[in-house]
Structures are given as structure tokens and as C-alpha cells.
Amino acid sequence: MGNDLPFSSRLIREVHRILLHGVRGEHKQPGEFRRSQNWIGGSSINDAIFVPPVHTSIPELMGDIEQFAHNDEIFFPELLKIALIHYQFETIHPFLDGNGRTGRLMIALYLVSKSILKRPILYLSDYLERHRNTYYTSLMNARQNNDILGWFKFFLTGIIETSKNGVETFEKILHLQKENEEKIKTLGSRSANAMKILTELYKNPLTDAHKVAQITGISLASAYTLISNLEKCGLLQEVTGGRRGRIYILRKYFDIFNR
Fold first, then answer.
1. Contact residues for 12 (Cβ-Cβ < 8 A; gap 6+)
2. Strands, E, within the chain: which ranges?
């Protein structure tokens, strides 16, 4: 998506539309800027923690974000630029629902659009969720006390922590790939089909006998035999505990992301 559309209000609306499809908020104008007032915190606008700008100003305000994002005449470090864009977006709160999800994904998409990342792999959601109170406090301090430096420090700390965790994760994956390939070599004539399954498991760490048969082109009975071999060498683990409809997981790979 980021390669088809430049970073823009249109891209942001498309991201919002996709994120809200089939989930909570799907009936709250997905892909469209709000046409009514909203608020953050409190049971009504009267006791709200923060009241975003009136809805009629949203197109102009989002247009300002777009112009700022593409302004190359005045140098501004890109990481600080997206920090300021994220702060502005969350302050404008342009959608009825899903502003948080959209605003977090915007960070990665922006960095891809500026060729700082090749893929949108730097996703700050985990950091922002773990430090939710500090996140909201930093945003409010920037809004109410002009403490934009405090917001920048919080945001850049998140970039550093997320980047370090990302590097550590990739190193673990590379180590595990080598370990898995060594185990597959022990399967002899079944190694080629086992490698096909392993390649697919890196995309989706769950599988079953029917998927194994489909991927390899072998019979269902042979698929069960191959799965048994993969279980014995420690690659797959059955997760349902049932006798039918068994599902298997690439456990060590899954655990890297689920720690």
C-alpha cells in the first residue's frame, strides 16, 4: 500500500478503512474523516479529558500534516518529523474510532515512504501499550504545557527500544533457521518436503495435515508421517490435544514473537 500511495490524507484514510474492516468500529465511517464532534476520556464532552478540534476543521488540519510531511525546504530530522506528525494526528483525532490503531501504523508507513525503512517492520504498538500512561501523559503535556521536548524524548526512546528489540528478534530468527535446517537434514529423503513445509511455517507458524499435503503434493497419509517426523525432531508441536482436526505449531519460532 505504501508503495502505491504517497504518505497523504488519502493513504491515512485507506489505512483506516482497512484496519476497521470486520472489527470494532466498522460502523463508524471507516475511511472517512468524522462529521461530528468526539472527545477523549469522560462519559460526555462536558467531563472529557481532551476535546479534539471541531470536525469542520479536519480537512484543513490534515492538509497541514500532509504539507509538513512533504516540506523539504526546511530541514527537520525525519524521526522528529514523524513524532510531530503522530502527535498532531492524535490531537486532531480525525476519525470517530480507530485513531490509535491508525496513528501507530502511520509511523512505520511514513518511515518507509522516506526510505528509512525498506519494510514497515518498526511497529511501536508494543512499546506504546506497555507505557500507555506515560504515552498519554506525554501527549497531554505537549498539548497543554507546550512540552514538545518531553514528547520527543518519549517517542525517540520508543524508537531506540523497538529497534533494539527488532535486531534481537531477527538474530534469534536467523539462529533458529540454521538450527531447523540442521534438524531437517536428518530426515533423509523427506528433507525436501520438510523444507517446503518449514518455508510456509515462517509465513504462518500453524499448519495441519491437509495443508502439508497441499503444499507438498503428497497423500494425506504421507503428510501425517511427515508431521510425525517433524514432531520427533522437535520442529512441530500439536496444540489442540484432540484426536481429530489436529493443528501443529512451529513452537520455537512462535515463541520468539510471543515473549
1. 62, 89, 94, 102, 106
2. 206-207, 237-238, 248-249
Please tell me the distance from the alpha carbon of residue 242 to that of residue 116, in angstroms, as a whole number.
47
Alpha carbons 88 and 68: distance in angstroms, whole number: 11
Q: Write out the three cell numbers for 75.
A: 530541514
Query: Over the stretch 139-189, which tens digit does the pLDDT of each residue have?
Result: 999 999 999 999 999 999 999 999 999 999 999 999 999 999 999 999 999
Is 9-164 CATH 1.10.3290.10? Answer: yes
Q: Which residues contact 230 (CB under 8 A, 6 or more apart)?
A: 194, 197, 236, 248
pTM: 0.82
Alpha-carbon distance of 132 to 187, in angstroms, equals 47
CATH 1.10.10.10 region(s) of the chain?
A: 186-257
> Topology of 186-257 in CATH?
Arc Repressor Mutant, subunit A (1.10.10)
What is the spatial distance between Cα 103 and Cα 87, in angstroms, rounded to a whole number? 9
Residues in the chain: 259
The gap from C-alpha 95 to its chain's centroid, in whole angstroms, comes to: 19
Q: Residues 140, 50: contact at Cβ < 8 Å?
A: yes
180-214 pLDDT per residue, tens? 999 999 999 999 999 999 999 999 999 999 999 99
Please give the single-letter amino acid code of residue 123: Y
93: its cell numbers: 483525532
- Maximum C-alpha span of the chain: 71
DSSP state of 35: S
Contact 56, 63 (CB under 8 A): no
Cell 490524507 -> residue: 9
